[in-house]
Design goal:
Length: 423
């Protein structure tokens, strides 16, 4: 008889992870089943066909989505992702996390997310613009400053937000800057928005270091995904005196035990499109990077980077989830056993949506703030939110993920209750 290989541990997809984390929080809060039924699942889902005339003259049809998970505490809010792996379940997961995230930082929004299954890296600027505008008109009936406000996410940019704003405004017949955030500064964007996610990540790491007694100066830091969130967080860690020893992007990873010169890595990436090949650094694989001994590991790429298969290899004191959903529930349990302190995504990367909120407030009031003002308000909200989550972590003896989910889910349930949606 042939020996059978042990069954691989089936990892859950991002939406199954989001539902599992909701159940854990709802159980810890002892939430009534009627309330769970009301707040667990997306309120509205729209799947759209996006036909685009390519430069060759051929029409290609792309699949797009917009999911509004919740509007209990305010309009839906969440980014738009252009990526080959976009699926309805991924968009549902990201929309669900947005609901709890906005509640954790206590800004008056629900959660939404959108995406198109495509590879923008293989498209010309003209193709990208035509696809964006067609998608914007397809989701137009359900978006708007009072209904649902998109923003950038993976592989979407301020320029793409400007095209969405323009398409929406053409349909309305007047300029509506508050329909999207993450816009260029010249079109109602907020100072500080581009750096806000990485800045918020940095604030939560600094708070964690203070609580755990880990010196920030000299802290060995590793970053997976040197994009918007990852590179800004890396740069702020560098400026604070931490030693950023390894970073990566899709084309490869680089390592220097003495610490990388992050502004130079940023300049190199701007020039070449990747960190790979940065002079004076060794090449490392993704697996080696995630297993590196360090004080702070920042997964800043995509979901499910750290699963049951590799969580046991992680040798960081603090894991800061700059990305959404990079650590699965099975990996959370391994982190707990190994006393790794996790800063969960819905707290860690909430700086982005917080400054998106500031942008929307500025647009709606036609009154703009200077960058110091934006950063000071962001710092205050991140510090308060970190303390709120940490207090639940300590008082309820639960890990930081569960503490954050309890805070977020609890606030949404309370909003439903006071609206009179359940007795
Ligand atoms: P981005 O496109 O600017 O950067 C993503 C980076 O990850 C790119 O450099 C890419 O090369 C790299 N990457 C992808 N897969 C990788 C892998 N397997 N190994 C190493 N690198 C890899 O996107 P972003 O806006 O920085 O978003 C990154 C994450 O942060 C996403 O999970 C996103 O949802 C989350 N996030 C972003 C914001 C924001 O405001 N940008 C806000 C909250 C959360």
């Amino acid at each position: 008889m042939l020996a059978t290989a042990p069954a691989a541990i089936a990892e859950k997809n991002a939406y199954e992870v989001a539902l599992e984390n909701f159940d854990l929080a709802a159980n810890a809060l002892d939430l009534d089943n009627n309330v769970r039924a009301m707040i667990k699942y997306p309120e509205r889902e729209l799947a759209v066909s996006v036909p685009v005339r390519m430069d060759s003259g051929k029409i290609v049809r792309f699949q797009g989505y917009r999911v509004q998970h919740s509007t209990q505490r305010g309009p839906a809010k969440g980014g738009i992702r252009f990526h080959p792996n976009v699926t309805i379940d991924e968009v549902r997961a990201l929309a669900t996390w947005m609901t709890w995230k906005c509640a954790v930082v206590n800004i008056p929004y629900g959660g939404g997310k959108g995406g198109i299954t495509c590879n923008p890296k293989d498209m010309s600027a003209g193709e990208l613009e035509r696809m964006t505008r067609r998608y914007a008109s397809a989701i137009l009936p359900i978006i708007g400053p009072e209904k649902d406000i998109p923003a950038p996410d993976v592989y979407t940019t301020p320029q793409i937000m400007a095209w969405i704003m323009d398409t929406y405004s053409m349909m309305k017949g007047y300029p509506v800057t508050g329909v999207v955030t993450g816009k260029p500064i010249s079109l109602g964007g907020s100072l500080g928005r581009n750096e806000a996610t990485g800045r918020g990540v940095f604030y939560t790491i600094r708070s964690s270091c203070e609580k755990l007694g880990v010196p920030l100066v000299g802290a060995r830091t590793v970053v997976q995904g040197f994009g918007n969130a990852g590179s800004v967080a890396a740069n702020l860690m560098f400026e604070a005196g931490a030693k950023v020893i390894a970073v990566s992007d899709t084309k490869g990873g680089i390592f220097n035990a003495k610490g990388l010169d992050i502004p130079a890595v940023v300049a190199f990436k701007n020039r070449t499109g990747t960190v790979a090949g940065f002079p004076g650094a060794e090449k490392i694989s993704d697996a080696e990077l995630l297993a590196m001994e360090c004080e702070v590991l920042i997964p800043a790429a995509l979901e499910n980077a750290i699963t049951a298969a590799n969580a046991g290899d992680v040798r960081a004191r603090i894991v800061a989830e700059a990305a959404n959903g990079p650590v699965t529930p099975e990996a959370d349990r391994i982190f707990d056993q190994n006393c790794i302190f996790l800063i969960p995504d819905i707290l860690c990367n909430a700086g982005g949506v917080t400054v998106s909120y500031f942008e929307w407030v500025q647009d709606e009031n036609h009154l703009f703030w200077d960058e110091n003002d934006v950063n000071a308000k962001l710092e205050k909200i991140m510090a308060r939110s970190f303390n709120d989550v940490f207090e639940i972590h300590v008082s309820r003896h639960v890990n930081m993920r569960l503490a954050a989910n309890m805070l977020g889910v609890g606030r949404v349930a309370e909003a439903c209750r006071v609206r009179g949606l359940y007795p």
